[in-house]
Amino acid sequence: xxxxxxxxxxxxxxxxxxxxxxxxxxxxxxxxxxxxxxxxxxxxxxxxxxxxxxxxxxxxxxxxxxxxxxxxxxxxxxxxxxxxxxxxxxxxxxxxxxxxxxxxxxxxxxxxxxxxxxxxxxxxxxxxxxxxxxxxxxxxxxxxxx
Length: 146
What we know:
25% of the residues lie in helices and 41% in strands. It is α+β, with helices and mostly antiparallel strands. The chain has a 6-stranded antiparallel β-sheet with strand order 1-2-4-5-6-3. Strand 5 and strand 6 form a beta hairpin. It is globular, with a radius of gyration of 15 Å. The mean pLDDT is 95.
């Protein structure tokens, strides 16, 4: 039997510590609770903005997608994105701190539905996200409920 970790947030942060994608994009894990996560990113115009001087939608989607794996891991699930829908409400034109908060809405045997919302520095809603994740495995050391 695999021993379950006691400090789940610290364990998950350690798992993502050397994630090249998150490190290159500047994605930070801010908060992890059971079934919930918050990740953020400091926008760098040289990295995240398009030729029109606004944050590229792909950078916003990458931030939103980053929260999904962390949220799945918070309940011990190894997940892969099956469906991803993002409604862009507001964009940014300058360097800002943005964050996305997520919650599991359905946790089945093979799929998980996660909702998320993205906000800017002034806590203005930037986007809403609805995803369906495929559960491809388990982190046996992470309890499903904690």
